């Protein structure tokens, strides 16, 4: 009779067998995810955009490589740090968490410094005199992190990952345009990230994880003690950290951070502060799809396919609660109308001489406003938009406002783009805007935008029927600019243009006319 020990030994896999098993699992898992995308259904039997988006994105990972392998490919340059001077200052609270945005036309190398003491004016011409600091350095063609601890500089080259993205401009400066350079400082996860545009996973260019290799709580504890100067949760002897921007004297002398140049359009990025501090660091993207908090289950929370309505920024939550139950054919379903408004709209779109058909000969899609504006949004806050087959918007943002988009009929494809800079074409006439990802929203799906998330997009109807959405906008509660226009990319010359929200029809007028056309169709 064989012993249990021999039975256990006989079931062990060789290295080749284990590798084959892992590969088979991986292939099977990918197949399963793709089948879930294909067969995902929402409660009303339609397709579910959130499930498709989550499953598709779970398969997408950007490649990374160590800075030590990339840095040798950069051309050598003079040490510009020695000629940089103090330019601006902000402060971190003692939490050491958040995102720092630097927004300007940076034509010469700059350094963003987090100093663990108060500013000393004697160091304004040489930040290396400080004893403890973390620095983001951005040069003409490269960027890197550096630190100094207790007076000793330490090399982070082997700790820094370079993320391979499709973004134009590379790691370094984009001197011909106003751009946002961001630094995410994450105390809890001991991770620092750098990127350009919006702070997202897709725009991250560098990442340095100071907890790398800590597989156990004990190892993590040792790592946290090792780097306590930079990531201490609490230190009674340490004051709030100072955030300082050092710039080259030539850049300071120009004072051209936000001035327009030839070929540029004025946009909301021109009105944003040079330095802005946000409280939450970048750890992971939220979902662009919203689900009512009342529908949350343990399984839904675990999958992470949605952001819940209770988690939305305040202004988004107001818009969501207003529109969550809206339905294009609500009057028909309640018995208050014998005609589906969706049928009447389709007939007006496809019928020669119809109200919507006639208007659509002059433009791609329609904006139909509902109610009045009270100054809390760019234009009227609620807009019914009708997208015939093949319609698309231009690439645009919404002036850094909060927004909610609900699909009332059909399906819409949404392409998410990086932040619009002040110049759409670079010096080589290459088109700058980069689509980061895309997803489709189906009837009943709700998506959201905020100043930092999903703000710049392009909507397209790629189906064989029209689509109707309700778009809702409201200034963020912390918005001190109240930009009253949408910034868009001009197709004809690549410049930034501004669109003041208008209307093609009021909803009451449109509804009355298309229902009249429906009732008169036989005559």
The CATH class of the largest domain, by name, is: Mainly Beta
Runs in which pLDDT lies below 50 for 5 or more consecutive residues are: 1-11, 32-45
> How many beta strands in the DSSP annotation?
26
Task: Say what the CATH topology of the largest domain is.
Answer: Jelly Rolls
CATH architecture of the largest domain: Sandwich
Pairing-aware structural class of the strands and helices?
Answer: alpha+beta
Give the number of domains: 2
**Proportion of β residues?**
25-35%
Largest sheet: number of strands, sense, barrel closure: 7 strands, antiparallel
What does this structure look like?
The structure is a single chain. The chain has helices at 4-10, 15-39, 49-57, 67-70, 217-226, 228-231, 249-254, 268-271, 298-303, 314-323, 330-333, 341-350, 355-359, 507-519; strands spanning 64-66, 85-91, 97-104, 110-115, 133-138, 143-149, 152-154, 160-163, 179-186, 191-196, 204-209, 242-247, 275-278, 290-291, 307-308, 366-370, 382-387, 402-409, 411-417, 435-442, 446-449, 457-460, 467-474, 486-489, 496-499, 505-506. Strand 6 and strand 7 form a beta hairpin. The chain has 14 helices and 26 strands. Helix 2 (15-39) runs antiparallel to helix 3 and helix 12 packs across helix 14 (507-519). Residues 1-11 and 32-45 have low confidence and may be disordered.
Q: What key attributes describe this structure?
A:
523 residues, alpha+beta, Jelly Rolls, seven-stranded antiparallel sheet, 14 helices, 22% helix, elongated
């Amino acid at each position: 009779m064989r012993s249990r020990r021999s039975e256990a030994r006989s079931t062990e896999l060789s290295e080749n067998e284990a590798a084959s098993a892992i590969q088979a699992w991986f292939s099977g898992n990918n197949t399963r995810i793709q089948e879930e995308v294909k067969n995902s259904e929402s409660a009303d039997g339609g397709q579910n955009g959130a499930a498709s988006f989550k499953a598709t994105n779970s398969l997408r990972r950007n490649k990374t490589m160590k800075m030590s392998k990339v840095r040798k490919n950069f051309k050598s340059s003079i040490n510009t740090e020695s000629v940089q001077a103090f330019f601006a200052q902000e402060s971190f609270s003692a939490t050491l968490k958040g995102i720092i945005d630097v927004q300007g036309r940076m034509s010469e190398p700059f350094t963003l410094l987090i100093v663990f003491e108060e500013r000393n004016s004697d160091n304004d011409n040489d930040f290396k005199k400080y004893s403890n600091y973390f620095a983001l350095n951005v040069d003409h063609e490269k960027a890197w992190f550096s630190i100094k601890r207790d007076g000793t500089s330490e090399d982070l080259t082997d700790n820094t990952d370079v993320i391979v993205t499709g973004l134009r401009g590379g790691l370094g400066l984009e001197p011909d345009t106003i751009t946002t350079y961001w630094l995410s400082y994450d105390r809890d996860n001991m991770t620092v990230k750098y990127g350009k545009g919006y702070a997202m996973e897709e725009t991250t260019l560098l990442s340095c994880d100071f907890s790398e290799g800590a597989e156990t709580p004990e190892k993590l504890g040792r790592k946290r003690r090792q780097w306590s100067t930079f990531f201490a949760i609490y230190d009674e002897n340490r004051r709030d950290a100072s955030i300082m921007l050092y710039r080259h004297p030539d850049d300071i002398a120009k004072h051209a951070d936000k001035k327009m140049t030839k070929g540029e359009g004025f946009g909301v990025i021109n009105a944003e502060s040079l330095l802005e501090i946000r409280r939450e660091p970048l750890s992971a993207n939220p979902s662009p799809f919203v689900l009512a908090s009342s529908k949350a289950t343990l399984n839904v929370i675990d999958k992470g396919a949605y952001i819940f309505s209770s988690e939305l920024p305040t202004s988004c939550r107001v818009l969501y609660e207003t529109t969550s139950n809206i339905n294009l054919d609500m009057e028909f379903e309640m018995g208050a109308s014998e005609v589906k408004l969706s049928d009447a709209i389709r007939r007006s779109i496809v019928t020669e001489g119809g109200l919507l058909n006639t208007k659509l000969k002059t433009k791609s899609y329609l904006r139909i406003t509902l109610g009045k504006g009270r100054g809390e949004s760019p234009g009227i806050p609620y807009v019914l938009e009708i997208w015939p087959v093949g319609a698309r918007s231009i690439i645009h943002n919404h002036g850094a406002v909060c927004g909610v988009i609900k699909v009332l009929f059909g399906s819409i494809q949404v392409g998410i783009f990086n932040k619009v800079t002040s110049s759409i074409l670079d010096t080589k006439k290459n088109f700058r805007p980069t689509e980061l990802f895309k997803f489709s929203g189906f009837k009943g799906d709700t998506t959201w935008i905020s100043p930092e998330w999903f703000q710049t997009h392009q909507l397209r109807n790629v189906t064989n029927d029209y689509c109707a959405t309700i778009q809702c906008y409201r200034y963020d509660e912390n918005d001190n600019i109240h930009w009253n226009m949408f910034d868009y990319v001009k197709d004809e010359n690549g410049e930034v243009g501004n669109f003041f929200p208008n209307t093609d029809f009021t909803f009451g007028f449109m509804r009355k006319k298309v229902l009249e056309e429906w009732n008169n169709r036989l005559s």
